[in-house]
Design goal:
Blueprint: E1 5-9, H1 13-23, E2 30-35, H2 38-48, E3 52-56, H3 64-71, E4 78-83, E5 99-102, H4 107-121, H5 127-140, E6 148-153, E7 156-161, E8 167-171, E9 174-179, E10 182-186, H6 190-194, E11 202-206, E12 209-212, E13 216-221, E14 227-231, E15 236-239, H7 241-244, H8 249-252
Parallel strand pairs: 1-2, 1-3, 3-4, 4-5
Antiparallel strand pairs: 6-7, 8-9, 8-12, 9-10, 11-12, 13-14, 14-15
């Protein structure tokens, strides 16, 4: 008897490749297809008929929940949601049939998810599973703003409240998190992060910086319509004219 058929959905090729490599250690599991957006994910579910879908929450064309809506809860394979952020919304998955993985996915965490999936695949289709997925969709279709992020110092991770952070600084494909004179690594891009921060508390002021508004001590006029931002600890950043004209920045500076 063949093992479970798997579909991997993620818009980032390295993330798909990592999941495929990790699943290769589960000899009876077969990755039958990959997809990188909502439309291709729906098409592959219809065509490949996987038993399990590893479904990134944030993908082009909508989100992972849109995939579920289009396929239909009753026709959806078992789902493991994948997310780049370990925020409070993931509490919805802590108990029950559904599971989640936080990037970067570790072998130990994947193994736990696989064991849970094995047990679920042994149980015939149940209305309770569909009802549970419906409840998750209602709760998470509109993700809350980030309240915590995992920051790294070498190989040690720390869960940090975002309201303690003074500012974020782009560093190639990652971000430096600045807190009270110290800095930590956040393994995500600045653009991705900007979409998940509360605009009432954080403002992107430059292509390389997002600042917590309460950390700003003063603003100074600068050349060519830019502003110099001085933080409470004396750090000076530049507020680019390009970002001053965007909402909600324009309202803040009225």
């Amino acid at each position: 008897m063949s093992g479970p058929r798997v579909l991997i959905v993620d818009d980032e090729a390295p993330a798909r490749r990592r999941l495929r490599q990790l699943l290769a250690g589960e000899t009876e599991w077969q990755v039958v297809a990959e997809a990188n957006d909502v439309a291709s994910a729906v098409a592959e579910i219809e065509q490949s008929r996987p038993d399990v879908v590893f479904l990134d929450i944030r993908i082009p064309g909508g989100d992972g929940f849109e995939v579920v809506r289009r396929v239909g809860v009753a026709r959806m394979p078992l789902v493991v949601f994948v997310t780049a952020f370990d925020d409070r919304s993931l509490e919805a998955f802590e108990v029950g049939a559904r599971d989640y993985l936080v990037k970067p996915v570790t072998p130990a965490r994947l193994r736990t998810a696989v064991e849970r999936l094995r047990r679920r695949l042994e149980v015939p289709d149940s209305p309770a599973l569909a009802a549970e997925l419906e409840a998750i969709l209602r709760r998470l279709a509109k993700p809350e703003y980030l309240e915590r992020v995992t920051v790294w110092n070498g190989d040690r991770g720390t869960l940090l409240a975002v309201l303690k952070i003074d500012y974020f600084e782009a560093a190639r494909s990652h971000v430096w998190v600045h807190v009270g004179g110290s800095r930590y690594l956040l393994r995500h891009g600045l653009g991705e992060l900007a979409e998940r921060l509360d605009p009432a508390r954080f403002q992107r002021i430059h292509r390389s910086h997002i600042v917590r508004l309460d950390a700003i001590r003063e603003l100074r006029s600068w050349f060519h319509g830019d502003l110099k931002v001085v933080l409470a600890d004396g750090t000076e950043l530049m507020w680019s004219r390009r970002f001053r004209t965007r909402e909600p920045a324009a309202r803040l500076l009225e």
